[in-house]
Amino acid sequence: MEVSTLQFLFMGIIFLLTTGVGLAPVLLGDVVSKKLVSRAVVRNRILSCASCFGAGVFIFVCFMGLLPAADRKFHHFLEELGHTDESWEAFAEFPWGFFVVICGFLIIFTIDKLVHAIEEGRRARRVTTAASRTLLAKPAADLASTQNALDTDANGAPPPGYDKESCSQHSEHAGHGVPSSIIFLLALGVHSLFEGMAVGLQTQKEKVLEFSVAVLVHEVVMAFSFGMEVSNDHGLTRWTRVVYVIIFTSTIPLGIAAGVGLQTTPSGNREIVSAVLEAFATGIFIHVIFIEVLAKEFHHHSHQAQSPKAKPSTEICLILGKVACICCGIATLILLSVFMHAHH
Questions:
Q1: DSSP string across 221-233
Q2: Are the C-beta atoms of residues 182 and 240 closer than 8 Å to each other?
Q3: What confidence tens digit (pLDDT) does each residue in 296-313 have?
Q4: Within 10 Å of residue 114's Cβ, how many Cβ atoms?
Q5: Which of 222, 212, 210 lies closest to 330, judged by CA?
Q6: Is the dihedral of CA 280, 286, 287, 289 positive or negative?
Q7: For residues 179 and 172, is the Cβ–Cβ distance under 8 A?
Q8: Nearest CA among 254, 259, 248, 180 for reference residue 219
Q9: Taking a C-beta distance cutoff of 8 angstroms, is the pair 329, 52 a contact?
Q10: CA-CA distance, 192 to 186, in Å (whole number)?
Q11: pTM for the full predicted model
């Protein structure tokens, strides 16, 4: 099987699986919500294990695949330039691949934080609006006492009669959720586009398989979380939710197609463009691993450890279980790599 054929095959598999998983909460909202809400602990454990497994897969792909390949391409390109023009030899020693990785990480990190700040501002305004409506709905006799309580409450407690549940229905979902605004959809699309491009830029079958498995595991978890969040947004119609999910899941195939198109297009600058995109994608992979997945998964335990009801033995077991899932993800890719090289 040709490399491009394998890439297009995984393009279809990734799109169909992520779309099916993402649309399940949207089209079967009531059934899925009732079953998953009643088993919230089990659901969160499964999502945590899947996220940590995907992080382990990404760690292998990032540090054993993308990063060395991008750095090697930069060195090869600069060495060839050095043979034609001696003034480029001084630049060949600088680790340009790692520099572009840092740039990719900082750019996507900045976008991510800006989007979160916008979402937090919107959420704060919704809470303030809901609190104001509650105050306006109260009788005049109670309004003065409520306002007085608000003015004298040093702890920032919510006003009496404030409906917390109605204001928090758009909140993020236990560390796995994704706000369903179009801004965050575009930010996620950038992630997924470059993840797919990393698959499309590969020229070896074993690398295509490794990267496709890594992207598939991560995107299935993200598609389910995104579908759950969109299905809980009552301000969107059902067809709007479907469109949101399909836009999100189509970014991976678009990235793969862009990578394959770049590799097959005859161009003198193709190698350096490929190296820059691979290094940029590596920075995004690092962000996904350490900021989006591991930081959220293990930050949750640092909060629970401060709770008086938390049992240290239970927390230790959960942490070790997540570390074991990370190791399983790395081991899976190692075995896959060894198997592919043995049959190469």
A1: HHHHHHHHHHHT-
A2: no
A3: 888 765 555 555 555 677
A4: 12
A5: 210
A6: positive
A7: yes
A8: 248
A9: yes
A10: 10
A11: 0.68
